[in-house]
Write a structure and sequence with these properties.
- A hairpin with a 2-residue loop joins strand 6 and strand 7.
- 19% of the residues lie in helices and 37% in strands.
- 8% of the residues are buried.
- The chain is α+β, with helices and mostly antiparallel strands.
- It has a four-stranded antiparallel β-sheet, with no helix packed on it. A three-stranded antiparallel β-sheet has the order 3-4-5, with no helix packed on it.
- The protein has two helices and seven strands.
Length: 145
Amino acid sequence: MKLICSNPAAFARVSDLNEWFRQPYVSMPALGRFWSNLGEALPRSQPDRLAVDVHEDKDAYHASFEVPGIKKENVKIELNDGRLTISAEKRMKTGETENSLTLSRTISVPEGINIDAITAKLEDGLLRVTLPKAEHRKPRQIELN
């Protein structure tokens, strides 16, 4: 049997800490208002960014962008100065009004890409861009003589 020393006062401090995490600026309302207003004053960069997943295998880099509900003709792919930019315009119609939202994302592309062999495919709301590595960048085995 193991005995554990109990200190109820310590638990009270933990509950204070939990309250602080829920409302960190309760004792500083001016600072709380500042952070709330800052989010509205800054340009809306986060909501307008496309979600992306990038991974690499031995032959290529693969970038997958989430573009649900966006048609192929509303997607623009551009490679410039080692940066891949995807822009997509999402059109939403509510009753008589039609709104559009432009989403974009730019990622850096590593050197050693075979630019002429880049491919892109849009399927089920997912844009997959494949950036094949140039032959000299691919891993290779060297025979031991």
